[in-house]
Amino acid sequence: MPGDAEIETMLLGPLVPDRVCGDCTVCCTVLTVNSPDFAKPGGVPCQHLTERGCGIHAVRPTICRTWFCAWRRVAELPDAARPDRSGLLVSMNFVDRPANLFEGVSILVRLLPGSDAIRSGLAARLLDTLCAQLVPVWFSDGAEKMLMHPPADVAQLVLSGEPAPGHLAEEVAAWRERYAVFADGSPPATG
Q1: Which residue, 113, 71, 103, 65, is CA-closest to 90?
Q2: 3-state DSSP call for residue 28?
Q3: Which of 148, 156, 162, 185 lies at a 20 to 30 A Cα distance from 24?
């Protein structure tokens, strides 16, 4: 089974050439890290974060060398979508025990405190770009996490196993087939 980095590359693409983190250190504070060689709670700055960035950049842990936000991987995202500029951190999300099949492997768009990305319309533009493929997309404002893709009617049919009406049958079948591995152990319903 491929690792998280390989799944990210399969679903989001390889790193965009010439797109670098620069001064952005949002992930160093926002993310929860629980890897064999490093751990830190979410919402807390990394112990190695300094005013000039990572204080141990040359010898940083493996997770820090191999993890990249979606802005680094999705060429269609504008330069303004870099997390420190946009107030949005977009990344792949992996849940060991998902509540439903859309949580196992998905894209998570996190609205950072103080962000004006909703008011400016940037959040909507990013969501439009990210919702163009067969990958679940969630949006979190810090208080609530909402499924943005697939649309609610498709999601309900996929989760319920009910037969899909003709105009949704192909889309529902595609989601069921791709995400059956995250279902409750029973074979995916067809419709």
Answers
A1: 71
A2: helix
A3: 148
* 90 burial via Cβ count (<10 Å: 0-12, 13-18, 19+): buried
Return the pLDDT at 106: 94
Predicted local confidence at residue 10, as pLDDT: 86
Q: Each residue of 9-46: pLDDT tens digit?
A: 888 889 999 999 999 999 999 999 999 989 999 999 99
**Structural contact between residues 133 and 121, judged by C-beta atoms closer than 8 angstroms:** no
Would you state the structure tokens that stand for residue 109, as one six-digit string? 């768009």
Q: How many residues does the chain have?
A: 191
Place of tokens 């949005």: 88
Residues of the chain with pLDDT under 50: 185-191
For residue 89, the cross-strand partners are 110
Q: What is the pTM of this model?
A: 0.88
C-beta of residue 127 within 8 angstroms of C-beta of residue 139: yes
CA distance 17 to 9: 14
